[in-house]
Amino acid sequence: MAVRREEARTTVDRYPGRVRVNHWVTAISLILLAISGAALFHPSLFFLSSFFGGGSNTRWLHPWIGVVLLASFTILFTQMVRYNFWTKADTKWMGHIGEVMSGREENLPEIGKYNGAQKIVFWLMTVSIIVLFISGIVIWYEYFGASFTIEQQRFGHIVHALAAVAMLLVVIVHIYAGFYVRGTISAMTEGKVTGGWAYRHHRLWLRGEAREGVIDERQTPLRGHNTRPAE
Amino acid sequence: MTNSWTDIKNTDLVIIMGGNAAEAHPCGFKWVTEAKAQRGAKLIVVDPRFTRSAAVADFYAPIRQGTDIAFLLGVIRYCIENDKVQHDYMRAFTNAPYLVKEGFSYQDGLFSGYDEAKRDYDRSSWEYELGPDGYVQVDETLQHPRSVYQLLKKHVAAYTPEMVERICGTPKDKYLAICKMISECSARDKTMTSMYALGWTQHSKGAQNIRTMAMVQLLLGNIGVRGGGMNALRGHSNIQGLTDIGLMSDLIPGYLAIPKDREVDFSTYMSTRGFKPLRPNQMSYWQNYRKFMVSFLKSMWGPAATAENDFAYQWLPKLDVAGYDMLRTFDLMHQGKVNGYFCQGFNPLLSAPNRGKITASLSKLKFLVVMDPLQTETSRFWKDEGVHNDVKPESIQTEVFELPTTCFAEDEGSLVSSSRWLQWHWPGQEPPGEAKTDAWIMAQLHMRLRELYRKEGGAFPDPIVNLHWPYRDPQDPQPDEVAKELNGYVVSTVTDPADPNKVLLEKGKQVESFGLLRDDGSTACGCWIYTGSWTERGNMMARRDTSDPGNTGAYSNWAFSWPANRRILYNRASADLDGKPWDPKRKLIEWNGTAWTGYDVPDIAPTAKPRDVGPFIMNPEGSARLFSRGLMRDGPFPAHYEPFESPVVNVLAPKIRGNPAARIFKDDLAALGTSDKFPYAATSYRLTEHFHFWTKHVWVNAVLQPEFFVEISEQLAAEKNIQKGGWVKVSSNRGTVYAKAVVTKRIKPLICDGKTIHVVGIPLHWGFTGAARKGFGPNSLTPFVGDANTDTPEFKAFLVNVEPSNGPAVS
Amino acid sequence: MLKELSRRQFLAGGGAGLAGSAIAALGFGGPEEALAQAVRPFKLAQTTETRNTCPYCSVACGVIMYSLGDKSKNAHPAIIHIEGDPDHPTNRGTLCPKGSALLDFVHSETRTKFPQYRGPGQREFKQIGWGEALDRIARLMKDDRDKNFVATNQDGVTVNRWLTTGFLAASATTNETAFLTYKVVRSTGILAFDNQARV
Amino acid sequence: MAGLQSQDFARISATNFRPPDVRHDFEVAKLIDVSKCIGCKACQSACLEWNNLREEVGINRGVYDNPHDLTPNTWTLMRFTEWENPQSGNLEWLIRKDGCMHCADPGCLKACPSPGAIVQYNNGIVDFVSEHCIGCGYCVKGCPFNIPRISQADHKAYKCTLCSDRVSVGQAPACAKACPTGAIVFGTKKAMLDYAQTRLTDLKSRGFKNAGIYDPPGVGGTHVMYVLQHADQPQLYAGLPQNPRISQVVELWKGLTKYAGMAAVGFAAAFAFVHATVARRNDVSRAEDREAEHLIDEEAARGRKA
Fold it and tell me: pTM of the full predicted structure?
């Protein structure tokens, strides 16, 4: 982890490769689960099962993707959990959420690696995945149909559906936040964010990173960005 | 059956005792449910177990197996005592008013004339008192102390409701309720039908069980009427036919008899079959015996049977004993006196009693030939199947042939139902593999034997080389040819003695009715009671007319019913003395002043005047017998005897074990068990999911009832610590089986003479071949003793012990 | 049903079916297509019917056997279904659990298909030809009969009996088979002759 | 052809299909008269035979019920109950043929997520269309009678079809045809109800005061009905439900949840879209970039000191 002075900008390392891989495995699983789940959830969306080669394939794939999700999310969880404990600053930050939504962050306290909203997303994801997994086992008919009563399975279904909806809402928030807060997505694509982004959104974290040291990666620090051959 | 399956719908009361029609004959039982639904008829079931029949009964009462006679004699006592007798019927149509000879007696469980050493009776005292005219003496007032009626009254006096409860274990209130229901059918407009099966026959007094109910029915006026009768529910699809055609040791087709040693020639044989009427004007139909016999001999030996050689009478084997039935044959086999044995569609290893003895007997054969469409246990009796057939093949020297045969689906011909209907059927596919019809196999054996005897000579080849074999292809006779032979045909043209130009019977034509058969060799007939089944009008057995005028259930133009297409036997008795139906709503036939007309073929000469000729035309008396004279070996009246293996002593005659006239071989007597070691009263039976040992080869049926079990009461299970679905070991003095335990409320302990009797039910469908799980059958346990009259094994009442077990593998 | 379809209809139907199943293969089958396949075809539409009688108990229910093939030379009839004959007065189309499963009796795995022979002391059957089996049986019969036939009893009465071989007859063969059996068995003098009436 | 045929349906799972009003078919029904039933299992046998189903050969568990439960191959099953009637003191052997009830309002169909996998014909038969079945087991949860079974071999749901193939050519279901005692009869629903009345008269005359018809209104009535000797206590008959209806949980799952869930997700997406269009961008300003450089330098220096 480091702050890097690059040719044209300063970046801060946010996620190493292993975290990014995990994130995207989780994300893709989630999307697949959402699509396949939606196909089984609402008849109008049954056509989505075509993406999985029909209803039968959707039926058996969905739970296995869930298993993949659980595995990758578990790793993700261990990678991130230490940054997600709640602080007083988070409470204060959450008090200003309206301003955040309006693009103003001047009056916010300094925030570490994650802000309150991100932490809530993290914990909601964790809880809903656990709930989804447990309820998913109850309704995984192929292997566990005989292990639970029909009444338990009926509850399993409704719990699974509600948890999935909750989770989808969280995911929507998460994705939208990524787009809305410009400069965020690079954290998961390139693994780093700009110094300005870190300053604006996670200043406390930036301080910590900077204190660790700054790596100067500029080849010709004074000549700036004119070193590359003309295109 | 005296009546037919479809006739049951006409009844008011069905009594199922000695059978379990719902279980063993579900599709026939439908006519019981029809009678219930359409007429409001009631159903009574009396059985040691609450059966599938009981499940839909209006009234159920338990009874200890083997005590039916006590129960029914009690019913007779009740009817007489309460004056619930159809008096006109009884007086006119039964031998109630006849006088019995001086000297007849019954005391301490024995009738007059008993010889203990021979286990047999001198039956000469069991006869009517004849008058100087040769006819029976009669007391129409029924008051004479030696009248059958008075003797019967005296005979049944011991069977009070208390005594019935003591013997049968049937609670008195239930018993009396049944008596009341039955006795109400003495009314002219009420009939009861009796449906029974092997629950009555498979006892050492089986024939008497049936007789007792027949007597009840006669007292109630229920024989010969619609919705009445004695209805034997035959167990196999054509066992009626095989019996009609006489495939028994002592029979000739049409219930004629194989000669005995003492019947040294044909005239001697015929002399005891004169069947002179015992009452004036009676038909005594057996007067025609000689016609049937000669026609049969003509069909056997054709041109070789001539008047000069008494129609080859001497070519028939003669019996030195009552009969070589299956039990006697196996006993002889056991003694090493039988070398060869054929089993055609028969699986005695599981069907015959005391399997241990059967295995030992078969092992002494030189050769065994099994013809069967299925792989039977019998043809594998030598095979080591572990606990399920524990034998050493090396030590068994028997040569065994297993010949594959067709089944119904590949075969053509007729079968006789319980209703006595001969129905033709057709094949729907080719036999599998190299399977052949039984007929082809028999023809092949005959052709080979004939050839060997022609070539080599040998012991008395005449009956073999001269056997009439007139078939288009002698190697493979076809069903139509044999059916015509059974019906009978004219061998040589017969003209009217009065007018030689008038041809009565034309050579080569089929005989229309058995009344036309002749005793001079001019007709041939395989089985006289089948005459009419294939006439010049064609194959009457293939008729499919479903019309039923009067909605009587007769279906007279459907197939053919023997005899003479008659649907209800003794139907003359459905009308009163003057020929008017007892119950106009249930008219069957009636006398219109000149002839009998109605819905059925009259069981009497169509112009025989009422009051002149009695309805029971096969009897020389013309009437039915409440007192059976010397015709039953074990008594002219039924009497209660315990089974040979009984949990209690005979309270009426404590010294007598079993039926005193039943035959039991010495070794088998020694193999009987007693209630101190084997305390429980066992019985064996069929389940509706299976048919004998066939359907264990049928996947679907194996699924429906996969595994051998025994049924016991909850009380016995608790007493012996037996778990529902757990293994039990059931043993008798002859063998041991392992079974799953079905613990049920449907079997309840009975209290007999103050003693608690536990009933153990053992169904019979499992063996070691087929699709179902390997198992055992009750015949590993049952005693080798038969009925006094028919030698039917006592499968329905024997003693066992039951203990919890870990199953056959580890025990 | 099939007979009433003209060839043109059949082709049209086939075309529609093909298109439908192609769509279904893509997973986009609509409800209409579901309907077309909902009701299974009636399996007896083109079978040959043969009347028969149930071989089990003596109620003697009428059955109809439905077999493949139209009896043409190259079509081997095989029974594919058996059910009750509705015209039969006794059973009126009904059948018990055994009758309803007759098909599995006809096609039972454990039906006998070839003659088999087991020699003295042997542990297994071996397949033999009919000719060989019948020749051997006839020889065994004749030898036993010739040796043990009783022409007269001690009193000199002609009795013509053969007691060392017995015959148990079936309970389900036809009357015609029964009578042939009777003739063949009685002509040899066998008295140990019985059937299954009692058990 | 398909267009016309579609009018023969009353319901199709997981579609918005609504039956055309112009056509009305006879509703059929099977009436099972328990009071006439002898438990012979002919219905089970005929069902296996007709539908080309074969079950594994099981074991005996101390009862007559075999197989022990409905399975993908056993679409109908006799269930035996030995009951001692406390009023009469008599033992009654209550034998009920279990199997699909062909509800007018079928829970299986309601629960099914796959279009056309479960259909209800105009004649009332509820049929599973294997082609479209995905083996999810939702029908199992939807059914108030615990009838459908999922095959582990092909992952399809199976149950009694009321022999829709036979009924479509005018024949009675195999079980009804076979039934030796006429305990199972088949006809139009109206005819069956009329006939059932005659049975009740007969049963009442034999002392069964509470004899009645089981045609539970909770599922809109059924196309398989029972005549019960003790209609006041259906649970005596191997647990026949007193007042069956589609589970509230299933109703909630397939009703409110389905719509509310879709709405919530849709609303969230829509909110995001609106927000994205109207709200001020949350972007890093040049000033913040510069501030960041300062802060980095400061902190880096602090870090070196420490």
Answer: 0.93
